[in-house]
Amino acid sequence: MIASVTQYISEAFIRIFGPNDDAYPNIGVQPFTGDPYKDRTADTW
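^ that's the sequence the OP posted. Answer follows.
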């Protein structure tokens, strides 16, 4: 039982502090294509 608890905790530690295994593409910064915020229009509703 102690061995299984130790294995469980060590696997969690390795998962948290290990290298990332995410496979996200390196896309960089995306340009903003939306409408700019107008401060005046927020007060009219």
